[in-house]
Write a structure and sequence with these properties.
- The structure holds two protein chains of two kinds.
- Chain A has helices spanning 2-18, 20-23, 49-58, 119-130, 140-143, 178-181, 191-194, 196-199, 248-257, 271-281, 310-318, 322-330, 359-368, 398-413, 425-433, 455-458, 481-492, 496-513, and strands at 29-34, 63-65, 71-73, 87-91, 97-104, 145-152, 155-160, 211-217, 221-226, 239-244, 262-263, 285-300, 388-392, 417-420, 441-447, 516-529, 532-533, 552-553.
- By secondary structure, chain A is of the alpha+beta class.
- In chain A, the strands form five sheets. Chain A has a five-stranded mixed sheet with strand order 8-9-10-1-11, sandwiched between helices. In chain A, strands 14-13-15-12-16 form a five-stranded mixed sheet. In chain A, strands 4-5-7-6 form a four-stranded antiparallel sheet.
- The longest helix of chain A has 18 residues, at 496-513.
- Chain A is globular.
- Chain B is mainly alpha-helical.
- In chain B, strand 1 and strand 2 (87-88) form a beta hairpin.
- In chain B, helix 5 (89-124) crosses helix 8 (178-212) and helix 10 (227-257) packs antiparallel against helix 13 (283-311).
- Classes of the chains: A alpha+beta, B mainly alpha.
- Chains A and B meet through helix 1, helix 2, strand 8, strand 9 and strand 10 of A and helix 2, helix 3, strand 2, helix 5 and helix 7 of B.
Chain lengths: 555, 322
C-alpha cells in the first residue's frame, strides 16, 4: 500500500512539474481565451469580430471610435475637422456638394519590416477597396472617395463625393502594405486567394501594431510577440497567446485550471454565464460588464393585419416587464432598450416615449382595437378569432429561449396567446427572417456602431422582396415617409445640434410606431485576472485590444 | 487478390462520385449562402455589395453549374478554396487531418488493447464475478455521454488537480516538446478510449462466447490442448471476424464523429472542421471533408474484407465480391 501511495505521489509530482508552465505563466506572458477563430487575416475581406480582436494587437486603423465613443486618430497625427481646417467643403467635378479631408500619418509609423507607412499604402488600399472583383466585403466607403491627393509621403487629401457627418471617420479603411500586396493585386480576381495576409500571415511587413504574429494554428491558437519596429508606447507583455475555445464550459475550465489568464469580453461568455461564474469564482477574478451596441429586439411582421394595428403593437409593449427581465435574468447588467439607439450613444433622446409594465393601458388599447378579454381570460375579436401570435427565434440560444418563455407568460397574463416555434439559426436567418417568412414575431439582434444610421432596417426601400432578390434588412416591412426622409437627411447633416434633433425625431417615430419591440442591449463580460489592469471595454465594434499598450501588470 | 483490390477501388470511386453529387446537392439545399452570413456580421454591406460578392464567389450560378466547375477542377487535383479558412482546401484539411489521425489511432489502439483482452477474459468465464464486473464497466462506458465524460475529465484533471490542460493544442513557439504535446492529448484520447472500450468489449465477449460453443473448439479441448491454446490459437481468429467489421466501421465514425470530443477539448480536428464547414456554408471544404470520411469508411471496409480472408482461409476474394 505504501508503495502504491509512493507511486501516486511521484506521478502527481511529475504531472505537476510538467504542467507548471500552463499554470504559473510568468507575467511577461498573457494568454487570452476567445470563442472564435478568424476566417482570414485580410483587414478588408470578410468582417468578423475575431479578426478585429487579434488585429487590435498588431494593426492600427487610421481612425477609430474610442471608449468614449468619439472618433480619434490612431495612425494619424490630428483628426481633421471643418473647425481645425483639416476638412474643407468643396464641389465635386459634377457640381455636387463634396468635402476634402486631409490626414497626416504619424511620422514614426512603420510596418513590422521597417518600411514606412505612407500615402502609397493609402492609395493602394483605395484601389483595392473600390475594385469590384477584389473580394473586399464593403466597398461603399471606397467608392465615395473620388480621388486622393498626395501632399507628401505622409500627408494625403481624400476628395469625397458627399458631405456626411462622419466625413473624417475612415476606420473601415484597413491600410494594406503596398510594398507587399501590390504584386499580389496584379490579377484582381485572384487577389482574395493570393493575398499575403492569408498565404504568409506571419510576414512582419503586414502589420504595424505593438505585436506581430509568430504562430497561427488554425482553429486552435495564435501567438503574438513584440514588434521591434513598433513606434508607440511599449506594451507590458513580451508574448500574448490567443487561444480559441468555442465550448464555453471548457473556456471556463481553462481559466480555472490556469490554461488561460483571461476571457475576452468581445468573444467570451454570455452575461448569464458570467453572472453564474461570478457567483462561484468572483473572488478570484475581476469581472467587468460593459453594455454594448448589440440590440436584442422582436421584429414584428407588419403585413400581418393584426400587428399592422399600432394599438396592438403598443399593447404588446405595455404587457411586458422588461425591467424585471433585465434585473432577474441578467442581474441588471443588460439595460432595457427603448429604441434601437443605445443610451450611451450621444444621439440618444432621453425624452423618447417608454413602455413600462401597465396592464391597464394594454387592456384599454386592445379593447379599443377590438380584442376584448373573453370568459377564459384570453382575448378574441367579434368573430371569435383568438389574439394569437407565433414567436420565433434561434433554437439552442439558451438566453433567447428563456426570454421567450418569460414573455409568453407575461403576454398570457394580458390575454394574449403566444405560440413558440424556434428554428436552427441557419434556417431562421437563412430563410425565415431574410425572406420575411415569419408570421408574427422574430426575436434576434442587430449589431450596430455609434451613431449608425439604421437605413437598411427602417427605410421603405430596404424591404426584402422576391423582386429585389430579398435584399435589404427592413424585415418588418415598415413604411413611413417621414422616417425615410429623416434617414436620408441625418447622414448629410453636418451640424451636430441639428442632427441631434433629427435623431430625436427618428427615435420618437420608432418608439410610437414600434416596427419592432425593443428588448435590451447585450453586455460584454470580461473575466480578468486580479493582476491585470488597464483594459477598457469600448462597448462598440472596436475591440479593447486596440489599446493593448495600456494593459499593465499590477500587484 | 490484385483483381479484387482493383474492382473494389473502382467501386469505391463510383461511390465517392455519387456521394459528391449528393453532398453538394444537400449543402446547396440548405437555407442561406455565405454572403448571407457576411451580411449578418457586417451591417455596412449594401445590396450592391451582396450582389457583387455573390458573383465573385460564383453563388449567382445554378448549383449544378457550380458542381460541374468543382468536379472539373477536382479531377485535376484542385479541390478549391476554403472561404472559411481563406486557404486552399488541402491546406485547411492537412493539419486537422493529422490532429484527428493522432487522436483516432491513439484512442482506437488503446481501446482495442484494453477491450479485446477484457472481452476474451469475460467470455472464458461467463457469468462469473469477473464477467459481471467487466460487463458493468462496459455498460458504464457505453452509457456515458461523451460530452459529460469529457467535462468530468476536465473538472477532475484540469480544474481540481491541475495536472493537465483543459483543452487546445500546444504552442510551437513555447516549450512544445513531446511531453507537452502528450499532455494536451491525454484527456481527449482518454474520453474517446473510455467511450470505445465498452462497445468493443461487448462485441468481443459475445463473439468469443459464440465461437467457444463450436464443435471444433470441443474437439480441440478433447485433444487435451490447454485452455489458452484453445482460446488464443483456435477460437480467436474466428471470433475476430465480426469484431473486425465493427472496428472497420468505427474508422469512418471516429473520423467525422469525434465532433463532441473535439468541441469539448477545443481540439482542432476533422469533426470540428466538417461541422464548421457545413454550418458556415463552405461548400468546398465540407464536400472534401465529408468525402474523406466516406473514403475512410470504404477503406475500412476494404481492410475488413482483406482481414476476413486472412482470418478465415475458407473465405476467398471471390466470396467477398459476391
Amino acid at each position: 500500500m505504501t508503495s502504491l501511495k509512493q507511486i501516486m505521489f511521484f506521478a502527481g509530482l511529475l504531472f505537476s512539474i510538467a504542467s507548471f508552465p500552463l499554470q504559473g505563466a510568468a507575467k511577461t506572458d498573457l494568454v487570452i481565451g476567445i470563442t472564435q477563430y478568424p476566417s482570414t487575416f485580410h483587414p478588408n475581406i470578410d468582417s468578423m469580430l475575431a479578426k478585429s480582436y487579434v488585429h487590435g494587437l498588431m494593426r492600427r486603423p487610421v481612425t477609430v471610435m474610442d471608449a468614449k465613443w468619439e472618433t480619434v486618430c490612431l495612425l494619424c497625427e490630428t483628426l481633421p475637422t471643418l473647425e481645425n481646417g483639416g476638412a474643407k467643403l468643396e464641389k465635386t467635378p459634377d457640381g455636387k456638394d463634396g468635402i476634402a479631408v486631409t490626414y497626416r500619418i504619424i511620422d514614426a509609423a512603420v510596418w513590422g519590416d521597417g518600411t514606412p507607412v505612407s500615402v502609397d499604402d493609402v492609395i493602394f488600399t483605395w484601389e483595392v477597396g473600390k475594385h469590384k472583383k477584389s473580394g473586399v466585403s464593403s466597398t461603399e466607403g471606397y467608392r465615395r472617395i473620388l480621388s486622393i491627393d498626395r501632399i507628401d509621403d505622409k500627408t494625403f487629401t481624400l476628395h469625397i463625393d458627399r458631405r456626411t457627418f462622419d466625413y473624417n471617420n475612415i476606420s473601415t479603411m484597413g491600410l494594406l502594405p503596398a510594398h507587399l500586396e501590390r504584386p499580389k493585386f496584379q490579377n484582381p480576381e485572384a487577389y482574395k486567394t493570393q493575398t499575403t495576409f492569408d498565404t504568409d500571415p506571419m510576414n512582419p511587413g503586414l502589420f504595424m501594431g505593438p505585436y506581430l504574429m509568430r504562430e497561427a494554428n488554425t482553429g486552435s491558437h495564435m501567438v503574438f510577440e513584440r514588434n521591434p519596429k513598433w513606434w508607440g508606447k511599449t506594451p507590458a507583455f513580451d508574448r500574448i497567446t490567443v487561444r480559441v475555445i468555442e465550448n464555453t464550459t471548457t473556456l471556463e475550465a481553462s481559466l480555472l485550471s490556469g490554461g488561460i489568464d483571461m476571457i475576452s469580453g468581445e468573444l467570451g461568455l454570455n452575461v448569464d454565464q458570467a453572472l453564474a461564474f461570478e457567483k462561484r469564482h468572483g473572488r478570484k477574478f475581476n469581472i467587468l460588464f460593459k453594455p454594448g451596441l448589440i440590440y436584442e429586439h422582436i421584429d414584428l411582421m407588419l403585413d400581418n393585419p393584426v400587428l399592422g394595428d399600432r394599438r396592438v403593437r403598443q399593447a404588446l409593449m405595455y404587457a411586458i416587464d422588461r425591467d424585471a427581465i433585465s434585473k432577474r435574468l441578467f442581474g441588471g447588467k443588460q439595460p432595457v432598450a427603448h429604441t434601437s439607439i443605445n443610451p450611451l450613444d450621444w444621439v440618444f433622446a432621453a425624452d423618447v416615449p417608454t413602455y413600462s409594465l401597465d396592464l391597464d393601458k394594454a387592456d384599454a388599447l386592445l379593447n379599443d382595437a377590438g380584442w376584448p378579454k373573453k370568459s377564459n381570460g384570453m382575448r378574441a375579436n367579434d368573430s371569435g378569432e383568438p389574439l394569437r401570435f407565433e414567436i420565433m427565434t434561434t433554437a439552442g440560444n439558451r438566453t433567447r429561449e428563456l426570454v421567450e418563455q418569460v414573455l409568453q407568460s407575461q403576454w398570457k397574463a394580458a390575454g394574449i396567446d403566444i405560440r413558440i416555434r424556434n428554428e436552427p439559426a441557419r434556417v431562421f436567418f437563412g430563410e425565415t427572417v431574410t425572406k420575411r417568412k415569419f408570421g408574427s414575431m422574430a426575436m434576434f439582434a442587430w449589431i450596430s456602431s455609434p451613431e449608425s444610421v439604421p437605413r437598411t432596417t427602417l427605410h421603405s426601400k430596404e424591404i426584402p422582396t422576391e423582386a429585389n432578390n430579398w435584399s435589404g434588412q427592413n424585415y418588418t416591412g415598415f413604411k413611413n415617409a417621414e422616417m425615410d426622409t429623416l434617414l436620408e437627411d441625418i447622414e448629410l447633416e453636418l451640424d451636430r445640434e441639428k442632427r441631434k434633433q433629427l435623431w430625436s425625431r427618428l427615435q420618437h417615430i420608432y418608439a410610437n410606431e414600434l416596427p419592432a419591440l425593443p428588448l435590451y442591449f447585450r453586455a460584454n463580460s470580461y473575466i480578468l485576472p486580479k493582476w491585470l489592469s488597464g483594459i477598457t471595454p469600448t462597448g462598440h465594434q472596436f475591440p479593447s485590444t486596440l489599446w493593448v499598450e495600456d494593459w499593465t501588470v499590477g500587484k | 487478390m490484385s483483381a479484387f483490390l482493383i474492382r473494389r477501388t473502382v467501386h469505391s470511386l463510383i461511390v465517392l462520385f455519387v456521394m459528391s453529387v449528393v453532398i453538394y446537392g444537400l449543402i446547396g439545399l440548405m437555407p442561406g449562402d455565405p454572403v448571407d452570413l457576411m451580411i449578418s456580421a457586417d451591417p455596412n454591406i449594401t445590396t450592391d455589395d451582396a450582389a457583387r460578392l455573390r458573383a465573385i464567389y460564383g453563388l449567382d450560378q445554378p448549383l449544378w453549374s457550380r458542381y460541374v466547375n468543382w468536379l472539373g477542377a477536382a479531377i485535376t487535383g484542385d479541390f478549391g478554396y476554403s472561404r472559411l479558412y481563406a486557404q486552399p482546401v488541402w491546406q485547411a484539411i492537412v493539419p486537422a487531418l493529422s490532429n484527428t489521425l493522432v487522436l483516432l489511432i491513439s484512442s482506437l489502439a488503446l481501446a482495442l488493447a484494453i477491450a479485446l483482452p477484457a472481452g476474451i477474459f469475460a467470455a472464458t468465464r461467463p457469468y462469473s464475478l469477473a464477467d459481471y464486473g467487466i460487463n458493468l464497466a462496459a455498460f458504464a462506458g457505453i452509457s456515458m455521454p461523451p460530452f459529460w465524460l469529457g467535462i468530468l475529465l476536465i473538472l477532475v484533471f484540469a480544474v481540481t488537480l491541475g495536472w493537465l490542460p483543459a483543452g487546445g493544442t500546444p504552442d510551437a513557439a513555447g516549450v512544445a516538446g513531446s511531453w507537452e504535446r502528450l499532455q494536451f492529448l491525454i484527456l481527449p484520447v482518454s474520453a474517446l478510449t473510455i467511450a470505445g472500450i465498452g462497445g468493443h468489449t461487448r462485441y468481443m465477449r459475445a463473439s468469443m462466447i459464440e465461437t467457444l460453443r463450436q464443435d471444433y473448439i470441443r474437439t480441440a479441448r478433447a485433444k487435451g490442448l490447454s485452455e489458452s491454446r484453445v482460446v488464443l490459437g483456435h477460437a480467436l481468429r474466428n471470433a475476430m471476424i465480426p469484431v473486425v467489421t465493427v472496428i472497420a466501421l468505427d474508422l469512418g465514425v471516429l473520423f467525422s464523429g469525434a465532433l463532441i470530443t473535439e468541441s469539448v477539448f477545443a481540439y482542432p480536428g476533422m469533426g470540428k472542421l466538417i461541422y464548421d464547414a457545413v454550418m458556415g456554408n463552405d461548400y468546398n471544404l465540407a464536400l472534401v471533408g465529408l468525402l474523406m470520411a466516406t473514403a475512410l469508411t470504404l477503406l475500412g471496409n476494404l481492410l475488413a474484407d482483406v482481414a476476413y480472408a486472412a482470418l478465415d482461409p475458407r473465405i476467398t476474394y471471390e466470396d467477398l465480391d459476391a
